[in-house]
Amino acid sequence: MAPAAVDFDGSSSSSKTVCVMDAGGSLGSALVHRLLQRGYFVHAAINSHVEMQSMERTIVDKKKLRVFYTDPLDYHSIVEALEGCCGLFYSFEPPSDQPSYDELMTEMEVRAAHNVLEACAQTDTIDKVVFTSSATASIWRDPTDSSPSSPDFDERNWSNVNFCKKFKLWHGLSKTLAEKTAWALAMDRGVSMVSINAGLLLSPDLTITHPYLKGAAEMYKDGIFVTVDLKFLVDSHICVFEESSAYGRYLCFNHVINSNEDAMKLAQILLPSDVSSLPPSMMVGESMMVSQRISNKKINKLMVDFESECHI
């Protein structure tokens, strides 16, 4: 079922209440602020008490905000945060004491996705789930898998799990298995779900150690190294939630790193003191331009009316 339209007359209604997990991250925090601006009541699910205090300090109008301490591995805490909500915006960020992706992180992320979708299935008021995944759940495949008839990538593609394991592409493996787990449960339990497969988020805290960047040189050479601005990513999430025609997966990015100039600009963000640390294959040849082999047409088509509305 599609979410009910949001009205802005200030009246209280459970159909206007949504939950954001993890509300403490860059995406989650921005989503909370934007949803409040659009008139929603928001349940902000935070993973730590430090994040809870930070969230409460940054919100000016707290009348439409409730903050919950929620562990994605604790089913009951998820159910509590979802109570009375018509929708969920879900994203997973590694715990602060486990910042890197590995096999253990993959297991944790899959368990979290399972818990969250099961909790949504048991919450009668939930009409729609927006599940934040990653472009890395679509772009990794064994070169022998490709054929002349399907040389490019879009949201119909899934990363090859065995390929990710072989080359220790843990971010791609985690996002692929977690998203597949979510889709399996959503279809089995009858939960309406849409996924946003985001490119690398260009946030202020982005560093060269971000797990998305494992294999950056290969992504660059293949024309599939994509990034997304925070505003575009937030708008995309809200758009697919509010638009009743939204369905399936959406590759979400608004820039492709496919030239040396692009690579240098990114290097200045990731390595402000030493751009020479960027992989040589991304730096050689000033005029080099790699052909783009990944499409975001589906999200762009859906966003046309949403963007027009935002500028009225």
Overall description:
By secondary structure, this protein is α/β, with parallel strands linked by helices. The chain has ten helices and ten strands. The chain has a seven-stranded parallel beta sheet, with helices on both faces. Strands 7-8-10 form a three-stranded mixed beta sheet. Residues 1-15 have low confidence and may be disordered. This is NAD-dependent epimerase/dehydratase domain-containing protein. InterPro entries: Epimerase_deHydtase, NAD(P)-bd_dom_sf, NAD(P)_dehydrat-like. It comes from Lactuca virosa. Keywords: NADP, Oxidoreductase. Residues 23-205 form the NAD-dependent epimerase/dehydratase domain.
Compact summary:
This protein has ten helices and ten strands.
Largest sheet: 7 strands, parallel
Structural class: alpha/beta
Order of helices and strands: EHEHEHEHEHHEEHEHEEHH
Write down the oligomeric state: single chain
Task: Provide the gyration radius in Å.
Answer: 19 Å
The shape, in one word, is: globular
User: Strands across the major sheet, in which order?
Assistant: 3-2-1-4-5-6-9
Report the portion of residues in β strands.
Answer: 5-15%
Question: What are the low-pLDDT stretches, counting only 5+ consecutive residues below 50?
Answer: 1-15
Q: Averaging pLDDT over every residue, what do you get?
A: 86
Pfam families: Epimerase
Keywords: NADP, Oxidoreductase
GO molecular function: oxidoreductase activity, acting on the CH-OH group of donors, NAD or NADP as acceptor
Domain NAD-dependent epimerase/dehydratase: 23-205
